[in-house]
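Review form for a predicted model. The reviewer records the input and the model, then writes brief findings.
Reviewer: anonymous (R2)
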Amino acid sequence: MTDPNTPSPFPASFLWGGATAANQIEGAHDKGGKGVSIQDVLPGGIFGPRTEGPTPENLKLEGIDFYHRYAEDIALFAEMGFSVFRFSIAWSRIFPNGDDELPNEEGLAFYDRVLDELEKHGIEPLVTISHYETPLALARKYNGWASRELIGFYERYVRVLFDRYGHRVKYWLTFNEINSVLHVPFMSGGIATPKEELSQQELFQAVHHELVASALATKIAREKAPDAKVGCMVIAMPLYPLTPHPSDALAVMKADHANLMFGDVHVRGAYPGYALRHLRENGIELDITDEDRELLTHTVDFVSFSYYMSICETADPELRKAGEGNILGGVQNPTLEASEWGWQIDPTGLRIVLNQFWDRWQKPLFIVENGLGARDELIEVDGRPTVEDDYRIAYLNDHLVQVGEAIADGVDVLGYTTWGCIDLVSASTAQLSKRYGFIYVDRDDDGSGTLARHRKKSFGWYADVIRSQGAGLVRGDGTP
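Model under review:
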C-alpha cells in the first residue's frame, strides 16, 4: 500500500482509466442489426491477408463478448476506481452500410445501455467516433476516405451521435490515430486500393477528407453539445537522431513533420508551410474548397494520443536498412530494450512527447493509449486464477512516473487511459495472446476458452495507483 502522506504530482481533476475499441472487444458482429466493417475482413491483423467476407476463425468477430458482458466488465473497471473509460462506437452498428438514410435503433440502444452502466458507476465516458472500423460497404463502393462523399456520410453519423448522446458524453475523439492512414490506409481510411498501388495524390486527398470531416465533427459538437470537449487523436512517437550528424537531425525533423502535420491542422486550423512544401514538391494538388478551409478553422479543445514506443532516424540508407525499426518504420534505438513483439520501451519518451506537444500547441493533452502487450500465464494463487504480471506493473509505473514529471514541467495533462484495460484482440496481430489488460479473459488464439474474467496482479496495483492519485509510483531510484 502507498503512504497517504506522500504528495502526488497529479491534480485532483486528473482522469484515470482504460481504453478499448469496439472492433476488439464487442464481438456480436452479426447481432443487433450491425453491418460488416473493414475489421471483419482483416483476420490476420492490420498487416495480415484481406478476405472477401467474415471468417469464423477471425477472433475479432467474437472479440471478448463485451456486447453481452459490458455490465460485468464496467463493474470491474469501477472496482479499480476508474473515473474515465474510453470506448468506441462501431459506425456499422449505427449505419450498417455507412450510407444508409436512417440509423439502426438497435445499435443506438446498445450504447445507451453502456452509458447507463457507466453513469451508474460514476465513470466518465470518452467516446471515439471512428476507431479503425469504417463500414465495409463504404470501402467497396466509394474507396473509403479517398472519396469526398465520405465527409457527408460521416457528418450524418456524427449528427446522430450528438443528437442521441451529446448530453451524456463530455469527451469525444473524432478519429483514432488519424495519422496512421499514411501507413495502413485500408484499416485507418477504409481505402480499398492496395497500398502498393495507391498514389500519393490519392492518399493525401484522403487525408484531407478526414481532416475536414474531423473539423466538421467539432463544429457539430459546438452546435449540439456546447459543453462537450472534442479532441483529435494521433500516434505519438518521439524521434531521436541515430547519430549526432546534422543530416540525421534533419531526417528526424522531416519524419516528425509527417506526424505533427495532423495535430497542426487540428489545432491551428490550416496546413503548415512544411506540409504545403511537401505537397508542392511531390506534385500533389489537393482539391480544397473554400468551405473546406472554413471548416478547418473549427479547432479542437484538446489533443489526445497513443504512446507505445520511440524510434531513431538517420539519413544513411545503409544504416536504415540494417536497423529496421518498429511498427511505423524508423530505425531501432540500440540503447533500448523491446517488448516480445519488438516494440521498443522508452518511458522517458512519454515525458519528451508531452512537453513537445504542450510547447507546440498549448492545448490540454490526454494520453488515451499506453500499455504493454505480453504473453500472460494464468496461475492459481490462494485458490483464485490470476496472473503475476510484475512486468506490466513495472512498465506502467515507469511511464506514469514520466507523466508526473511532465506535469511538474508545467504540461496540462487531462488524464491517462491504459490501452486494453481488459484483454482484447490485438489490432496489429489479431491475437488474444498479446495481452494488455488488468483483467485476464479466458480465450485463446484458437478461439477456445470460457471468456471468464480474472483479476491480474496489476488489477490491484492500478486500483492502488488511482486511490493514491499516483502518490505511490516508484521512481527509478526506488523512492515514491
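Findings: The chain has a mean pLDDT of 93.
Further findings: The chain has 15 helices and 16 strands.
Recommendation: see findings above.
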